[in-house]
Amino acid sequence: MTDNNLKAIEMNENELTKLKLLNLMNNEFDNFDEIHNLATLKALNVLNLTNNNIKKVTKGKLHQVQNLDLNQNPIESLETIDGIAAQFQELVHLRTQQTPLEDKYGRVNTRCHIIARIGTLAYLNGSVIREKERKDSETFYIKEVAKEYIKEDLSDGAVKEKLQKAHPRYELLCSKHGDPMEIVKREMENTAHASHLSVAHVLIQNMSASTLGNNTYRHPKKLSLSLKVGQLKRICYKLFKLEPELQALYYTPDMEDLFPEALDDDDKEIRYYGVSNNGVILVQERDLDKEKQEAEEKKKEKEDIAKQQEDEMKQKMSWNATMI
Questions:
Q1: Are 206 and 239 in contact (CB under 8 A)?
Q2: Which of 23, 37, 196, 261 registers the highest number of CB atoms within 10 A of its CB?
Q3: What is the pTM of this model?
Q4: Residue closest to 51 by CA, chosen among 231, 307, 290, 253
């Protein structure tokens, strides 16, 4: 049923009751309301919706599906992930590559949110989710949600209900990992305090392997918060002799923070990134050859992925046909 320009699909209750795999890639489905009646396929385990027009996933009853492919769909909202979790309650494998999600939120953030929001997943985009990654993703997620809660008036029942609806796993994950509210409040207070300061005392730490042997790898510095990232790179060059164009700078208020903030805009002041007293600037070295290779690989992946997955599905469907 691939490449048929399908926009909807009808399925009678007694049809294809033993079907385990359904390939609907390269069609024009744009809403799960058009395919929700696939719930009648009680044995359906693998559903491929690669390269359709799906932007959001509404709640339904496709709980039997464990392997879902949504590659190359215009999914751009993280709330869609909660829809996937609600509709596919036994989901183990999920693919969401080549969607706007990573461009909008970044690869690491997107992966963390998906892992945290869909508790049943064991594999994401073909890679196994290990327990440490799951824990790190879930704790990162609840801290992000806590920031939203703090900014809102939770005495307003409608606001609280809205937040709970937007983050259905938040309370469960808080009971699992502990409520991050107080920690987040302190971090936000420190950031707010820093916004009223003109300078910050920080530690600049060199993480570049090629220059570690030449200089002291840590330098305490007093920095003006109006300093721009590009100017900070020139300071780092004087300290570590690493050319500015090779620098990738990150900021963390705590060295145990698993997700330091990328200082990714040379024209922005460092106060924009929440730089404050006792924070750490991490200086890493870009691998330009690797970045070029990754860009080429991503381009090639975009060209090859449809063919690769279609071949896989043909093989699975051939196997499935013998089971019907």
A1: yes
A2: 23
A3: 0.64
A4: 307
Convert the pLDDT of each residue in 137-189 to its tens digit: 999 999 888 888 887 766 667 777 877 888 999 999 999 999 888 888 877 77
Look-up of token digits 């330098």:
219
**Which tens digit of pLDDT belongs to each residue from 104-115?**
888 888 999 999
Q: Which residues contact 179 (CB under 8 A, 6 or more apart)?
A: 146
Range with lowest mean pLDDT among 8-22, 57-71, 189-203, 235-249 = 189-203
